[in-house]
Design a protein that fits this description.
Length: 364
Amino acid sequence: MVKPDFDSATTAIGTPNIAFIKYWGKRDDSGLNTPNNSSISMTLDETLSTKTSVLFSERLGKDTLYINGDEEPIEGGRISEKSAYLKRILDHMKRIAGVDHHALIVSENSFPSGAGIASSASGAATLVFALSEALNLEMARKEMSITARQISGSACRSLFGGIVKWRAGTEKDGSDSYAEQVFDSSYWPELIDIIAIVDSSKKRVSSSAGHAATVKTSVLYGARPAFAENGVSEIERAVAAKDLNRLSMAIMRDSNNMHATMLDTWPPIMYLSDASKDIIYKVHELNESEGKCIAGYTFDAGPNAHIITSEEHRDRVMETLSEIDGIRETIESHMGGGPRLLGEKDCLIDEAGIAPKNSNTRKE
Ligand code: PMV
């Protein structure tokens, strides 16, 4: 194995994905994030992205992570569940590479964190990709997918571009629960995700808490895994045929089904806001007026809408959205190709000083 080059940082860019058939609910509380059902998503282009630079150096006294300019503790007492997994994964990857230097990891998102546009998926996928490259691990994307899944389930899909399926798998250790590409990003280039931001504040119930609460208390949830598995096959058929009517319908049914199990959770979880509901009604009105579905909405664990449509109908959809109060901003994204390496000019680390270039502490 080639040893890492400790003098230079590795920088990568990765993007979020939007699930057409959602992952909601884990098989157990092992921390492995093995899901109860398969899911399928579209990886977005770099309009929204995470850039991550990684540097291993003997001059570092500890592993340090910066997200959007702020240091995120990854060691010690009060760390988040995701950071704890991240640290475990970093340690694991260092062990495989036979590296005992500490790491400086600097990550920046180009979109609001915690707003239900899956910054954790983009962040975890990009991090695993960057670490694997920095440590010269030569991991296959499948292995990276399994690794990223353990930080944030939906992240396993962001290791691939295009339309990506995450097979739930059955093995207890999660070894057969990973994502794979079903169609590459050039298969249906006219497909667009119009993201309507209605609220960019942090969500009230984290997805980790939500997954567990729904599985434990929702009566409706029992019907969800089989419904979702059928949905995945339906999406594969709809994309293969480039059938927007069929695709939109399956996307909307699945989003509504997942949010129904959330509302049925005790105490109830409600991620949709009044503006989200207005979007739902308006998209149905639009589709009815067209006599077929030309757009489909879907919502993750947050109130922001993702409206899937194609170039041909973009203007009609935008016109419809302009009639809704409460949409702060729209962001358009096509399908993207998954994570890739960037050159030195994009590096987020000041290599001489071994510090982030844009840390919030340094700015003050
Ligand atoms: O990956 P997590 O644990 O943040 O779960 C996210 C789940 C949804 O975004 C709601 C659906 C999905 O499949 O992305």
